[in-house]
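> run fold Phosphoglucosamine mutase
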Amino acid sequence: MSLIKSISGIRGTIGGKTGETLSPVDIVKFTAAYGTILRKAAGSRKKIKVVVGRDGRISGPLVSSLVTATLNALGIDVIDLGLSTTPTVEIAVPREKAEGGIILTASHNPKEWNALKLLNSEGEFISAELGKQLLEIAAAEDFDFVAVDKLGTIKQDDSYLQKHIDAILAYALVKKDAIAKKNFKIVVDAINSTGATFVPALLKALGVTNIIVLNSDVSGNFAHNPEPLPDHLAELSSTVVREKADLGIAVDPDVDRLCFVNEDGSMFGEEYTLVAVADYILSQRKGNTVSNMSSTKALKEITLKHGGTYYPSAVGEVNVVTKMKAVDAVIGGEGNGGIIVPDFHYGRDALIGIALFLSHLATQKGSIKSLRRLYPDYFISKNKIELDKGTDLPTILTKIKQKYSKLPVNDEDGLKIEFDDDWVHLRMSNTEPIIRIYSESDYEVKAKNIAHKLMQDIKENM
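> ok
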């Protein structure tokens, strides 16, 4: 049982003791703290509103009812999008001129997890400073609920699926006609969540008529581990080959991460989702790029090729967005398949990612696998170690930093060590009680060896 409070929101497992899981009491407490912050910021305004949406998780209706009722008890009106996606809620917040938004999703975590992802009035994740303030208010339980005649209201709004798609179709670099002419046959793994509704609707709007959807029941009973990694996509790969499809698409439960499968069932590589979309964007408009420091160096090479400058950021969407704004990036994201298109909106969005990727592919002569061959073959070994409660990770990383002090080291976010052209990044997860160990090299075995060496260093110091 877990409860994690970080820049990625309030995340935990359903069921268990208060204060140790995402219990009903904790849901109410953190929602009340968030609403309290919004009310204080609004000053003397009589009414404020918050957009709420959820993915397909089993616990979604329960969590949603607690969240909306708590906001109403603070006198806050709720615009309830119901079953939705993270990027759709992010788009809805500024369109509705709302003071904030809450997305009920634990993203790639298994079905027993859920979370409150908290947005500001721009539809972007709240800052670390605001997050700290929220935790203090929640701990003090310093809430002031309104009288009965000042309770907030709930407005159901199911229009944002179409509004999101319409915005994508209107985006200048999305080539609907070129995509339609290709007559793509596409298999989608929708992981029994809202991607089963949103992704096919987008594909049809782009002129794709031959669509096969796997795991299409929006039940929250995920057919496999919901993180879109190669080990979890065997069914998608085999279906692409069996159906002789042009490509496969996988998204996570809240549709902000995206990866592709080639026509032969091989992985395009989640790291290369951003690389390919950035290549397309940069071919149309010059500028800078950003990704977090756990992402492939291939993005830097593509950026330099197009005459731009690449900038790394700390891990976490809010950190990537902050860096993108600072350097005026035209495209950015994360190597986990997260695409951020700043003049669309500052948030990871698998739907605009799909449209831009297919626009790129539609302008190429060959298949998706031939597109993949345009980019360098680097291998990232992604590993993790579960942490016992009370593990002193900062001390562990300090000892490892001392051991490798003669090498280039970056400790902005955990510890990143460079070994000539290779690297390894060690950091505490924002979403799980684990330390992640990512390493990259031009040879798969070399990347794995680097990761395993550092994993041993960690274990020796635990």
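Residues 24-42 form the longest helix (19 residues).
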